[in-house]
């Protein structure tokens, strides 16, 4: 009984299913209750589960920090931070406590918390509503960082995140919230830490996630090249093996992300390719990324975001090289 | 619309046991003789641990340590007010309270020896590990108290922090969350007058720290933090209110008689005369006079208690040293995630081969 859902609906139906399945799940965040979230990702949940869905004060450190306590009492906090850049106000709680409490207590105190937050650009939002600080979060040991790229993937990965024994930061590309529908199976759970081979191919590997996967598929559809497209889905801990195996096969690779270039995930991924597939490479690995500038206000946003043309250019350069 | 007063607030201060050892009988909590002596012994144990820890650190056997000398009444009195299943959410100076909650001193020493084993907490202890970043843990206690309320459990969370922490935004967020959600939480601010070197008047223009509760819409009260009976009474009342979903901020006015940590030298920023003044107000001395006057404590009992806490702490030191000798460095890889991710497995294997060229 698969429904055709948009990504934002997949978030909502997954939360509804997890609230129904597990009494320990609590959902809270700014405007998630009566308003149903600014993107309506939690619409109707307060009415259905009035004792476990809460509007929270406007306090991101608080939203993240109380999760440590909720989890200690045996609950599974699922918090929403309204936009990713506002998580900077809660970053200290995330890095100092949520992500490290398991390690610092040798596994005796854990924090199975999910923090959902809309991220990335492309919806002409206000300043600081379009950030992709994914690599910064990926740099925090103990945290799992997930980025879904479609409605079905959202349902499968969010289900796994809520059920995970570890804290998960679930980054929802705002641009994809309402961009397309997809069949979403009921009770769909996908593994965390495992990449998906979106398209198999022999000539070149592309690694892309979130909204950039859509751009990548738009680019590859125009080309008569046998491309393997990999979506890591979990950017930390990263599934190195799937990527390295693919590059060993194709010898060529392009990594795409919306986040700024320097110290971005592409640097880490290419480093792992160098460690695991250097002698298989036919050409230098290319990265197509955002620029090392603050994400501009929306009048210049399209100039900032990598698009299908840039990805196509990267593919051509890697194919022509070597 | 004319000007009018629309809200008034007052902050009450309480003292039960005066500096001369006399007690306000109307306010005195009903503790049995045995409970009073247990309380005294807990304060002595805490003092002994701190003294030994400082000398161990000076000998190079312990890392940085934050003594609570002078704050034993605030910590022991409050911890005694808790029920068995209540939660303790400490900062990094709460060894006195933690030992009342039956945290073995060995664990406190292990943490100060730089071992995660010192924060290894059995689930039934209902404790969170020491929080190093100032003022971050009250939010965890708000979460615990809220979580218990959601689950309709009677358990209360008691969290400890200092005067400096009240300047952190997280502490206000914690008080505010607790108020909004009716969290079963008691916030105990030990105002020991100094945040490392920063005096209270440089920390805030607020007349009391208890009044920080007012903006969050919860109750605030001050108690003489060197009065173990007063702290016990006020925190007991706060805990009972918390069980009904009414959080309280308790300001225990005390004095950090020793250094902030073993890395600190208080002579740089305060006068010896001030320290002498507070030595005379020491919480253990005051309580001892009271117990002697009540005929509960004679020289023999004092000596027995001293010997017992001495040997307990000495044993704890031996056990912590033995644990350090068996420390497995590779343990750092084991608890980062519930299941070790492949990259971490690779790094752990490389660690085992450390020194090999392909590490």
Please tell me about this protein's structure.
- Chain A: Keywords: Oxidoreductase, Pyruvate, Thiamine pyrophosphate.
- Chain A: InterPro entries: THDP-binding (IPR029061), Transketo_C/PFOR_II (IPR009014), Transketolase-like_Pyr-bd (IPR005475), Transketolase_C (IPR033248).
- The complex is a heterodimer of chains A (322) and B (359).
- Chain A has 322 residues and is α/β, with parallel strands linked by helices.
- Chain A has 2 domains: 3-184, Thiamin diphosphate (ThDP)-binding fold, Pyr/PP domains (Rossmann fold, 3-Layer(aba) Sandwich); 196-320, 3-Layer(aba) Sandwich (Rossmann fold), CATH 3.40.50.920.
- Chain A is built from 12 helices and 14 strands.
- In chain A, strands 3-2-4-5-7-6-12 form a 7-stranded mixed sheet, sandwiched between helices. Chain A has a 5-stranded mixed sheet with strand order 9-11-10-13-14, with helices on both faces.
- Chain B is of the alpha/beta class and 359 residues long.
- Chain B has a single domain (12-298), classed as Rossmann fold, CATH 3.40.50.970.
- Helices cover 44% and strands 10% of the residues of chain B.
- In chain B, the strands form 2 sheets. In chain B, strands 1-7-8-4-3-2 form a 6-stranded parallel sheet, sandwiched between helices. In chain B, strands 5-6 form a two-stranded antiparallel ribbon.
- In chain B, strand 3, helix 6 and strand 4 (185-191) form a beta-alpha-beta unit.
- The longest helix of chain B has 27 residues, at 299-325.
- Chain B is globular, with a radius of gyration of 22 Å.
- The mean pLDDT of chain B is 96.
- Classes of the chains: A alpha/beta (322), B alpha/beta (359).
- At the A-B interface, helix 3, helix 4 and helix 5 of A face helix 5, helix 6 and helix 13 of B.
The overall number of domains of chain A is: 2
Contiguous runs where pLDDT drops below 50 for at least 5 residues of chain A: none
Instruction: State the helicity of chain B in percent bands.
Output: 40-55%
CATH topology of the largest domain in chain A: Rossmann fold
CATH topology (level 3) name of chain B:
Rossmann fold
GO molecular function, one term (chain A): oxidoreductase activity
Protein name (chain A): Pyruvate dehydrogenase
GO biological process, one term (chain A): sulfur compound biosynthetic process
Cofactor (chain A): thiamine diphosphate
